[in-house]
Amino acid sequence: xxxxxxxxxxxxxxxxxxxxxxxxxxxxxxxxxxxxxxxxxxxxxxxxxxxxxxxxxxxxxxxxxxxxxxxxxxxxxxxxxxxxxxxxxxxxxxxxxxxxxxxxxxxxxxxxxxxxxxxxxxxxxxxxxxxxxxxxxxxxxxxxxxxxxxxxxxxxxxxxxxxxxxxxxxxxxxxxxxxxxxxxxxxxxxxxxxxxxxxxxxxxxxxxxxxxxxxxxxxxxxxxxxxxxxxxxxxxxxxxxxxxxxxxxxxxxxxxxxxxxxxxxxxxxxxxxxxxxxxxxxxxxxxxxxx
Amino acid sequence: xxxxxxxxxxxxxxxxxxxxxxxxxxxxxxxxxxxxxxxxxxxxxxxxxxxxxxxxxxxxxxxxxxxxxxxxxxxxxxxxxxxxxxxxxxxxxxxxxxxxxxxxxxxxxxxxxxxxxxxxxxxxxxxxxxxxxxxxxxxxxxxxxxxxxxxxxxxxxxxxxxxxxxxxxxxxxxxxxxxxxxxxxxxxxxxxxxxxxxxxxxxxxxxxxxxxxxxxxxxxxxxxxxxxxxxxxxxxxxxxxxxxxxxxxxxxxxxxxxxxxxxxxxxxxxxxxxxxxxxxxxxxxxxxxxxxxxxxxxxxxxxxxxxxxxxxxxxxxxxxx
Lengths: 291, 321
Ligand SMILES: Nc1ncnc2c1ncn2[C@@H]1O[C@H](COP(=O)(O)OP(=O)(O)OP(=O)(O)O)[C@@H](O)[C@H]1O
Ligand SMILES: [Mg+2]
Fold this sequence. Notes:
The complex is a heterodimer. By secondary structure, chain A is an alpha/beta fold. In chain A, 37% of the residues lie in helices and 21% in strands. Chain A has two domains: 164 residues, P-loop containing nucleotide triphosphate hydrolases (Rossmann fold); 70 residues, no CATH class. Chain B has a two-stranded antiparallel sheet with strand order 1-2. The site of magnesium ion has 3 residues of chain A, from helix 1.
């Protein structure tokens, strides 16, 4: 029996209200996230995009339960996210498979923590690996896999415990362009199959458009929500859509929003580094290419 | 040492291909083919296989120069020993009383039938197994706690830091007073010798665990104990085994010294007794046996390491199901 049937789309509601996060104490405290309110509705795919250091990872880490809010509330299905748990699957930018476990044992890890017995675990893991086209590699060690495959296993592992939400922090950042596109397609497939809510962080505008139902753009640090852009493109989405007028309109809008912030972020850094009078000659378009 | 890798890798490839062949290939094949463009970069291709005879001949040919040099090296050493004893070399270093290779061989032939000799060997091995075994258990346990928990670090590490610089052998008089029997005090010395290398390497291993693995473990619902046993411990295992290898060496050093000083029985005692009884050939035999036992012990650890850490040595599908 396949335990991975579509879940009902009423769970997996991430709600962030007036979140502020400070690192450090008193005068030397750094404000990483400043009054962010946002949400991911059940079954929705939401991306966050913003300049480097604006607090995206911090926001995600609060949802994951690794960082506590300084003020404000963060809940998943009404429960505060005060510590990490298997109800929130996470995929990291760095490869995070356990090198001492085979692919299948990696996928089984979360189920083992839940006390599921050996044979059920193996069965569940194989079902999932089959869905991701990885069954032939179940007995390989992570070391023997390519980067794209490692991240696919990472996604499968995070999904194995049937979490309510999937949190992804630039999971494809380390992959080459071709592999990225394939991974985006696979992720979309898995997401639709599982009807899971996804909160996805990326630097890549195309990636955010291709994957998301909605995109939040964050400001330079301290990070606030600058804009919320719906992506009404029909699904299934194909790479060819990238040349349609609708796509290009969204892309231009996102690009301009991000360029402003990146310029601000760079300006801030330049001021910090004592180069305040320095003329930035890169136009908005140019900076968007940089990030 | 040289020939081993070539022969090894030959047989490894052989078994790996067998592993792929008898893995449930039929049912899995479609899954592999469904995603060829992604699967291709990850699958390490198996080399084309030469025939068995070709591989043996090739392996021997590759091994031959190394084998020759090893033989030459050992042969020269024994020849030097032989002539030095035969002509009673006495030029600062004195070979007057040193047994010749022939005498050693002759005595060894007698000792092979001596129950007492085997008993001495066994006593030493037992002391090593006990002392080293306890050191492994405690060293790894304390190492995990100290590495992972600040309180454990604060409370335990200072004591260990103070005791660590004292060589195990310096403990002999104290150990004799401390422990009820001679036997336990010798095991204690052996334990002390191996405990610190194991402890320190375990701590180092825990400290160098990739934090993202710990975070991944937490996200997957691991509790404190699960994290310690299923993430920290395996992640630290390579360092722990470094500690075990070093610890085993120090354990033998400490054991032999302790047996020579305070001992009753044991191969170190045997060697020292041979000196007192002017049975000089037995000294050499004792030394050789100590060397062989030490070598066997580190070989055993390496074997155990390969067994417990297959992910470090596997470069092909092992087909473990
Ligand atoms: N544990 C911490 N202690 C102190 N400061 C921190 C900590 N974690 C993050 N910061 C700071 O908070 C700010 C936001 O960091 P964060 O990692 O969330 O940014 P980001 O948007 O994910 O950046 P990037 O795009 O580079 O990944 C940064 O200025 C960072 O230096
Ligand atoms: Mg980040």
